[in-house]
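[Q] Does anyone have a clean structure-token version of this?
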Amino acid sequence: MQTIRILLLIAVVITCGIQTNAQVTIGRDESSVQGALLQLKTKKDNSSTGEENAYQGLGLPRVMLNSSTVIASDNNDLKATIDNTSGAKWEKEIHVGLMVYNLSEKTGRDGADLCPGVYVWNGTKWARIPKACAASYKCGDNDLTVEQWAERIGFSPAEIANVTNAEAGSSIERTGYQLHRDQGTDGKGANGKLFISSDFGTAGRWMITNLAARSFADAAGRKSYDKTIVQSLPATPTSSTAIQHVNALWAYPKTMTDPTTYNSYPRQGLVYNWIAATNSKGHKNSSGTASANGLGSWNDGEHQANARTYEFQGICPNGWHLPSDAEYADLEQVMCDNTTQYAATLPKDGSTIAPNAFVRGAIIGTAMKDPCPTPGQTSPIKDSNGASNMMSSGVKSGFNVILTGIYNYGSSANMWTASSSQFNMGWNRVFGSAMEPVSRASDPRSSFASVRCKKN
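[A] Here you go.
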């Protein structure tokens, strides 16, 4: 709010220096339009067309609102509605018209939903413009469907219905979000499941909901190294966690064969063994020699010379691929460098991701985890300790990792990469409820983990 005072002081000084009732233009040495007391512009106004008259915008102060109204315990002090304010009392009556950009997303002290966006104090409450927040999502509720999350972001039902494939995505982008559909049950999009992606700067565009595909994408549209589909996914989930490296298998989270948990909380997606996630990458080794037992050797972790040589589509839709160990390192570095963009309540991590390190960053695990506990989980873990920005209109998404799987449902999550450390192991990332960093791990290829795909 100190910024507002400075701007107002500058405006007063400029106004008084010209004449008591003068109008002011900032950015160009000419008078403002007749109806404006203060005008910002860098280009001469065209009175006949009303065309653009500037190439920059007005940067509003960014604050963390904690209440939409001044409650009784605030002693009629408006500044109590904004975190970390101090100084003299702000009389709420004379601050009508005060404008800020709010960053917080929560239920306020007065019980009202707060979400990122422009707010104006109207004398009674902070009013969000152009419209109020969507109903907030509170931890402990039944999880929304992916379609409902898309509406929460700001996509209309018609826009959602028009999304037909993964490669093209939705026709529009909102605050970095896009909508897509996976390859469905036939590899060509029949009954394709909706998924949501977001942009992560130099690390590219990634899924922010887990993959739920039950078939490999049609071979005609595959463009990665693994253009040929080695084997089809089975029609039904597996019930076995036995060690084997030949068959591509999938399962439902938590229960393996019972779809109840997945149907109730679909953004958890499905879980896959590494054979399924990579389209049977181990059926050949890095030299192209066939391996009947599925133990073809690929040593292509992030620190190896061939870490970025091959791009494997695996189970991902056409136009997407299974990220490599090195690409996860890229994402982690973006998270370290820009933590507050993706987790607004955290400070900047600032770490440098060291090649081949098993512990990644200081707090980016917290930054990448969904802030709510795993849907339906009541014990033993009731808190994800995550701080990822939740998907919402006007706010840049975080990575929103849900602590799901079949081994430690509710307390940890594993994400497959396309890279292998040796003949029977696959690189993955581990997120735990008690972990602030991200863990880089090498686990048996027969293990089951979630999949997040990256756009080509």
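[Q] Thanks! Anything notable?
[A] Residues 1-20 have pLDDT under 50 and may be disordered.
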